[in-house]
Structure formats: structure tokens, C-alpha cells
Amino acid sequence: MKTVKIVGVPEHFNLPWHLAMEEGAFEDRGIDLQWEDIPEGTGRMCQLLSENKTDLAIILTEGIVKSISEGNQVKIVQEYIASPLLWGVHVSAQSDFENLSDLRGAKTAISRFGSGSHLMAFVQAQNEGWDPNTLQFEVIDNLDGAIKGLSDGTADYFMWEHFTTKPIVDDGVFRRLGDCPTPWPCFMLVATEKFLQENKTLMAHILEVINLYTAEFKNIPSIDRTLANRYGQKLEDIQTWLSLTSWSQNQLDSGVLENVLDTLQQLKLIEKALPLRHYLEDI
């Protein structure tokens, strides 16, 4: 058995991986796939990849493209989720904020610098016509930290995946002022260059397994109920999320990658784009 380490967020997007592991689909190929949940999100996963503490990651597109641009020796193996991520913009339910426009000059909670919650705050600012240079940040590590930070006033608003945070909105802890969808496919499957150089055939086997599972995922009987039960969601919310979400079995389109790079440069989040071959792996 070959041990392979993979990291991802503890969210409903990643259930196909867990089903494949539970059903022994990787073991059948001689692969001991070891999954670790990273609630801190993309910034932390970029660090783990750079330190070769994981081989693979399911990670936000904008975060990993920024990290590769800054020298992280990682490549995008393929798209994982082809649809946009719907980022909810949340405030404390007890706050006086009523509209997105009220957040101009407010402090945003982020899991860490380089994370999706950090980078998407710039996209949100651009959408609202704010000067991105005026954004203020408070690092809160994870969702629990955001609940504390917004409740005690350390930060004013927090951007996180709409459906993951909906139970917190329903419980009257957060209030959602709006949504900010990513202008590109949201999650990528990435690998360290070291792993790819040493395990080309193994990577192909992993892709064959996960692509079979994602291609059939929505057709699994009662998958909506399974998701709702495993992730503490209302059935109707999961059904809406499933209708908005599509899994991919293809490599990221180079034109889409160029759009991500252009946006990151416009927002001054990267100094320059590298040639596309530095980002995309050809399996």
C-alpha cells in the first residue's frame, strides 16, 4: 500500500472523497489515502503544501493560484468543483449593519492571510466600488473564531460559504447581508510537484477513482438526505446547494486561469503572473 496524504475543508463538497475511502475504492488500487480536515481553510492548506506535509489538497482556486504565483511548488491537477462558490457576507445578528454598503470601512474577519475569506474580501470590495486598499482585517482562524469575533466586536463582517454558515444564520447568531459568488470554478485538486514527479501513475489512479465518484455523485439514491445528516444541514438547503453545484473531471481551462490571474493582479494580490505551465499539471 502506498500512503498518500490529502487535506480539505470539513464541508459537504468533499463527501465523494469520504465515500470512496469508506468503500475501499482507493485501497483496491493499493492506495492508503489519508484525509485530514483543515477547518482553517485555504491559507493553512497552502502552508501544508509548501512544507510537504501533505501531498494533495482540495483547495480554493484563487488561494492556490496566488500561492503558486508566490513560489509554492504546487500544480493544479484538475478542477474539482466547476461551479462558483457562493460566499455569504455575514455580520453579527446583533449589529446595526443592514446593507452591504454599510460595510464600507468596516473590519473583515479572515481565517488567515491568503485564504479565500481574505482574497474574496477584495473581490467583494471591487463589486461594491470600494477602494481595496482601505480594507481592514482581523485573523480569526476558523468559523468558531468568526462567531466569537463578530459577537464581541473584534471584527464586523465575515465571508464564508453560504450553506456552511446557514445553520448559524438560522440560529440567529449571524445575519447575512448578501452573497458574493466567485467569478470562476471554486475548488481545485492540487498536488505538490515533488509528489507528481515521483507518483505520476499513482496520481492517474487517484483521478480515475475520484472522477468515477464525482460523475455519479448526484445520482446516488437519497444523497441529499445523507448530506443533510452528515453535515447538519436542512434537507431543503442541501437540495438547493446540490442544484447549484457541479463536479468536474477536467483540467482547469487556461482561459479561466488567465481570468483568475488578471483579477489577482488588478486587485494587487500578486505582483506578476507566471507562465501557465507553472500552474497546470498534464496527467
The number of E-state strands comes to 10
How far apart the termini lie comes to: 21 Å
Q: What's the SSE pattern?
A: EHEHEHEEEHEHEHEEHHHHH
Strand content: 15-25%
Which ranges are low-confidence, i.e. pLDDT below 50, for 5 or more consecutive residues?
none
Helix count, DSSP H or I runs of 4 or more residues:
11
**C-alpha geometry:** globular
The CATH architecture assignment of the largest domain turns out to be 3-Layer(aba) Sandwich
Give the C-alpha Rg.
19 Å
Which class best fits the helix and strand makeup? Answer: alpha/beta
What is the CATH class of the largest domain? Alpha Beta
Q: What descriptive keywords fit this protein?
A:
single chain, 283 residues, alpha/beta, D-Maltodextrin-Binding Protein, domain 2, 2 domains, 5-stranded mixed beta sheet, 11 helices, 10 strands, Ca3427-like_PBP2
Secondary-structure blueprint:
Layout: E1 2-8, H1 15-22, E2 31-37, H2 42-50, E3 56-60, H3 61-69, E4 74-81, E5 86-92, E6 107-110, H4 116-128, E7 136-139, H5 143-152, E8 157-161, H6 162-170, E9 174-181, E10 187-192, H7 193-198, H8 200-216, H9 223-231, H10 235-244, H11 254-266
Parallel strand pairs: 1-2, 1-3, 6-7, 6-8
Antiparallel strand pairs: 3-10, 4-10, 5-8, 5-9
Description:
One of its GO terms (cellular component) is periplasmic space. Keywords: Signal. Residues 93-179 form the Ca3427-like PBP domain. Helix content is 40%, strand content 22%. It has 11 helices and 10 strands. It folds into 2 domains: 2-83 and 184-278, D-Maltodextrin-Binding Protein, domain 2 (3-Layer(aba) Sandwich); 87-181, D-Maltodextrin-Binding Protein, domain 2 (3-Layer(aba) Sandwich). The chain is globular, with a radius of gyration of 19 Å. Strand 1 (2-8), helix 1 (15-22) and strand 2 form a beta-alpha-beta unit. The chain has helices spanning 15-22, 42-50, 61-69, 116-128, 143-152, 162-170, 193-198, 200-216, 223-231, 235-244, 254-266, and strands at 2-8, 31-37, 56-60, 74-81, 86-92, 107-110, 136-139, 157-161, 174-181, 187-192. The chain has 283 residues and is an alpha/beta fold.
